[in-house]
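Q: Got a minute? One more chain.
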Amino acid sequence: MPPSTRPPARPLYTDAQRARRDATPWTLVQGVLAPIQFLAFGISLVLVLRYLAVGQGELAATVSVVVKTALLYTIMVTGCIWEKRVFGVYLFAAPFFWEDVFSMLVLALHTAYLVALATGALPTRALMWLALAAYAAYVINATQFVLKLRAARLGRASADATMLPAGASS
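A: Always. Here it is, folded:
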C-alpha cells in the first residue's frame, strides 16, 4: 500500500496514557535504570568474553552476570508497576505486548543462569555461554523497546506538526 493510502499508525499512548506516563515517578525510574542496566551489560559482556577467550577472571565475570541479572529483575518489576500505572495492566499492555513477550525469554535465560550457578548444574564455560545467550536476547529486547519508543516519539512529533496552524513552522 502506498504511504498515502495506509491508515494512520495507532499512537503508542492515548492522551490520558501520556498524562499518566508523565505524572508517574516510575517513568523516571525506568529512564534511570535502563542506562545503568545497559552499562552493567557492557561491562559484564567484556568480562564474560574475556573469560571465554583467555580463561581468566571467572569470579569477576560471574559476579557481573549476577549484578546484571539483579538489575534486570529490578527494571522488570518497576516496569510492571509503570505499565500498571500507565496502561492499567502489569504486563502485556497492547502497545508493548511483543516487547513483554520477549522480555519473558530474557528473564527465563537470566534465571536459568542463576539456577545453574546456584545448583552447579553447568560448568563455568557453559554458564558463560548461557550468559551470552541471555545477553543476546537482552540486546534484541532492548532494541525492540528503543525502536518502539523512537517510533512513538517520531509519531508524536509528526502528529504535533500536522496540528500546527496554517503558516506556522516547527
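A: DSSP finds five helices and no strands in the chain.
Q: Perfect, thanks.
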